[in-house]
Amino acid sequence: MKLLSKYKVGLLVGIAMFCSIIFSCKKILNPDIIELPTAENAFSSAADVDKAIAAAYSFLRKVVPDKVFLMGDVRADVFNSYSDNVNVRVETPIPQNTAVALLNNGGGDWNGFYTVIAQCNLILSNIPKISSYDGESKKRHIGEASFIRALTYFYLVRFWGDVPLNLDPVNIENLARTPQDEVIKQILADLDVAIANLSMNYADGDKAVRAAKGAAWAIKAHVLAWQHKYADCEKYCDSVITKGPYSLVPSTDLQKIFIGKSNEGIFELNFDVNAREVQKNRVYNRTLGKPWYKDQSDGGAGTDKFIMSPTRDNINIMFPKDLNDDRIPVWFVYSTYLQGVESDRVFLGKYRTLQMNGDTSTQNINESNIIITRLADIILLRAEALASSEVGNAAEATIMLNKVRERANARLYTGDGNIQDTILLERKKELLGEGQYFFDLVRTRKLDKESRIKQADWYETGAWLLPISQTIIAKSNFVITQNEYWK
């Protein structure tokens, strides 16, 4: 896939002349579109649209886990290698926030996100052309495509700030970067379309892995929090909590959250080996060693020295030794210590659901779902909104915070310490490894306190943004410009 490079759009439309124009053009925000019906029968029925939406989910599943773990967890210095200079892997320097480290780990490449967007644009432009369409199916498809596009643009904005905004299925002009405030307006508009068209529940097989109304509410709450519109954010969080079909799973069933489709799941990326939805060398292989992964998939010739994990000091800050917390034995695998000087390392245990424990013949064995948002996330986001200066309801914020702590049989918050800092720490503890924490630090303007990014003016000058690949900039004939901090 080459964004802003030669068109390789394939069968977007069944018009040969138009395709010939596309293939010869160097201006594009449309990478390849695959897994679609052929041009002869494209989008002639709801079933065709359903297949195209399945492809959009597939594209999302391909790009999000890798990017969000590296730039949402590792960049926040939550996960790191044993050392900065011993037994290192390519991801190790990411927390140092250098251009080389970020670019070497895909931090400058937004192509995968635009693949998802191009697919959604194609779907939304073709739905009105279908003459025979069941009303409920049509609403659902419009809602899902709008939701996926909104979520994808939200990732783009949080990673790169100003990004090209394209809503057309085919675009033959280079597009400059659109101010992020305008992109967010479109994100909110898409989410409103999703909210208006999606139902609260669908078939059990689609639970949490296909967008429903509650997922659109939850992502809209996050967008509003990103804008610091906490009063509105709190209302959408409350809708998810009180009107949605979600409930916190008991502490005895925490692992079921990551197996997927639990009562707590709001939206997640499905991984099912029977549907060939598997990943290799992504979040799973980076955070689990033997007996789960024994080959070179860990980036280090099968040795656990190369695993990315929180340090013991970091774990002890989140979960002090003298305090009970039922999340500890699920979040972490303490039974497998690395030998010798690495003996202080532990594995992230959330994503240890395997088709067959110890299967090393394929390594494509992990069936844990990647969580985008779940009820605990939204409860804590509501706590953050309630505790904000705009809302100023610390008492209700405490109730929300303690809902999550009570589920874990952890010590309840009774007013000891700053409540906003306490909620932020609780999000770090609860959502560890789910790609949230760097975004949390940017949103709360506390990045300089928790990460290695120490510039006094880190936000104003854009140290929190990712650089843009020079290849993308050059392919655009320099219509795309670099983020100011990385010039």
From TrEMBL:
InterPro entries documented for this protein: SusD-like_N, SusD_RagB_dom, TPR-like_helical_dom_sf
A Pfam cross-reference name: SusD_RagB
Keywords of the record: Cell outer membrane, Membrane, Signal
CC per GO annotation: cell outer membrane
Subcellular location: Cell outer membrane
PROSITE patterns named among the record's database cross-references: PROKAR_LIPOPROTEIN (PS51257)
CDD domains: SusD (cd08977)
Domain SusD-like N-terminal span(s) in chain numbering: 43-222
Domain RagB/SusD, chain residue ranges per copy: 347-454
Similarity comment text for this entry: Belongs to the SusD family.
Protein name in UniProt: RagB/SusD family nutrient uptake outer membrane protein
Classification of source organism: Bacteria, Pseudomonadati, Bacteroidota, Chitinophagia, Chitinophagales
